[in-house]
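Example 3.2
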Amino acid sequence: AAVFTGDWTYGLHEGCKHERGFACHFTAFARECAEGELAAIPAAPEGIEIDPREVVGVDFRHKGVFWWYAHVQFAMLQPSLDFQVKLRSVMGALGFTHPIVGVHVRNGDYCSHENEQGGHCLLYKHCVCQGFDDYREKIRRMRELYGVNTIFLATQDQRIVRAAEAEEGLRVLMLTFDRAQLTGGAARTALHWRQKLGYVDSVMVSDGALLDLFILSQCDYFIGSFHSQYSRLALALMAARQGRVPPYASVHLSWGACLAYPL
């Protein structure tokens, strides 16, 4: 069973015209809990390590943790009808065509931005802030192996955009928005808090993040960094959609290196 508690902040802005909360962007996959039902669900014991292989349904354990994770997430995160319309419109405006490499560069609220090599981490002990150099060789290798010269770039970092657009012969597709709002690491305030406090455009933050995610999932190949759960999720959705693990590369950590979902 899966239980969501708390507010889905991304679905509480004025852009959610017909539904609010989770249903603003996603198709409901289960009913909402009735009053009092959540209180009846026992909390998970603290301090107990759970082998992720035991979470996989018995009939599917031979397929592995990644397969299970990918297909569960794919089933749960289907875009709502309203968001599907927006997604198709954006992809059409971008000129999205196959083949294409999805590239996710996670340099945002937790990174300083004093240099072109990613800066340094401000908020989390083990995070990594990368420059485009970390991705350039991976992109070039994909181009050589698969003859693909178009990327969809999902990033909060305008410096990464400039570097990608300077690559010879590379067609770069990306969402257009004010990335300066998203790179507020110098203020040492995480993005979700700035969103709640009204310091950033909630529609831009919410829709931008999810449009990036769904467009990445439509790509044929993937390059990201698996210290980011967003990169891990993008690859999982892509794999479930394609019915196979697509060619991919990570500039930092393997998919199974995260302690929350070890392989």
